[in-house]
Amino acid sequence: MKVKKVSQKKYFTKLLREVTIILVLSFISSLNQFYAQSYSHPIFDSLKIIPANPSPNDNVELVCFTTLSLSPAYLDSSKVNFQNNQIEVDLYYFLGNFMSDFVRVDTIDLGYYSANDYTLVAYAHSYMTGVPDFNKDTTFINFTVLREDVGLKTEKTFSKINLYPNPVKNQLHFTTHSNTNKLEVEIYDLTGKRVVSQQFNNTDKGKIQNSIDVSRLREGLYLCRFSRGGTVVTRKFVKE
């Protein structure tokens, strides 16, 4: 008789545990549904193309400033499609369960494009555990890859620019070749803000070798833009 009572007690204890788990999971799912219906995630604050006026020799990147209201959140994946001069970028954000507004800055590599006018359409998708792709924001920008006839044709000799060391801590050195003795160097952060602008006047035409002080820059990825007259070349480097 006692054995039977013990077995019944174990059975009801196990049943109660399973019911509790089901109720907790149901509550979490309902909570996620509530978040999904109550908040608009994510929202594009702005998009920037870097460099702002690319040439066919520039690697184009998209910088996205996105507001999310649930944390922790991160960019899980992205996808780029190109057709008929339209670039479509899908960004997939995974959201947490805590209410906390913050802005993410993400950089997407778009690659190289020939001289033409382009429309970029960006879609910010978001999803949570148990709530797939419940909301998205859409925005677009137009940009132009400048043609060679407006003076952005890059000479092969000038395009052979070497940056070192990379990553860099203090002095960023560069070497290149140019048939003129004037060279302008600009450094941009991923927000598109110019943080360094410097001109170099070399006494001899041909090989140019010089350095830039980047010790005061914050850690992160930067774009270094070299221009000589109408010729522009962009290179990346990492500040440690």
From TrEMBL:
Q: Pfam families, from UniProt?
A: Por_Secre_tail
What is the protein's species of origin? Answer: Brumimicrobium aurantiacum
Which segments constitute the Secretion system C-terminal sorting domain?
Answer: 163-238
Its keywords, alphabetically, are: Signal
Lineage, broadest ranks:
Bacteria, Pseudomonadati, Bacteroidota, Flavobacteriia, Flavobacteriales
Origin superkingdom: Bacteria
InterPro entries registered for this protein in UniProt: Secre_tail
Protein's UniProt name? T9SS C-terminal target domain-containing protein
